[in-house]
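Q: Please design a sequence for this.
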């Protein structure tokens, strides 16, 4: 299950539900909320990253948190748009270090197509460290499985 709360904490409508632990994915809307969104006028990610840290530190262990962003400047009426170059250089390197980072959610597909946002960021969104750890883990499991099968054939 997933939820899409506003970035202001606690979310007025979803706070109690999120605290139940029933949600696997939390897609936080880091837009239309000036106290916790990117300041495009000053190219400043301070409030955004403070809010991200608050959300990821309070999320339960089973929660994967996504950064919800507008896919174009006109996709959100109260701001929060991050130019792709700023997202790639100022935000993603920091949030990808968070253990419960899940990726980026974009609002909405029409604006994404018009601005080509996802194509500009998709190569930078993945957690390569996680992929590496997963590959190493699978290799170890495969080696142990092969060794056990040779020791104890069917």
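A: Design:
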């Amino acid at each position: 299950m997933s939820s899409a709360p506003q970035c202001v904490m606690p979310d007025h409508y979803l706070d109690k539900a999120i605290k139940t632990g029933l949600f696997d994915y939390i897609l936080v809307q880091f837009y239309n909320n000036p106290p916790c969104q990117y300041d495009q006028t000053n190219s400043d990610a301070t409030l955004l990253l403070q809010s991200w840290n608050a959300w990821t530190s309070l999320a339960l262990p089973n929660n994967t948190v996504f950064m919800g962003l507008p896919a174009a400047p006109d996709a959100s009426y109260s701001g929060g748009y991050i130019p792709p170059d700023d997202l790639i250089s100022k935000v993603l390197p920091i949030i990808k270090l968070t253990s419960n980072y899940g990726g980026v959610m974009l609002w909405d597909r029409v604006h994404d197509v018009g601005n080509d946002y996802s194509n500009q960021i998709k190569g930078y969104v993945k957690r390569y460290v996680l992929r590496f750890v997963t590959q190493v883990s699978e290799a170890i499991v495969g080696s142990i499985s092969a060794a056990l099968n040779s020791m104890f054939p069917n």
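Q: Thanks. Anything notable?
A: Confidence is low (pLDDT under 50) at residues 129-136. The two ends are 40 Å apart (CA to CA).
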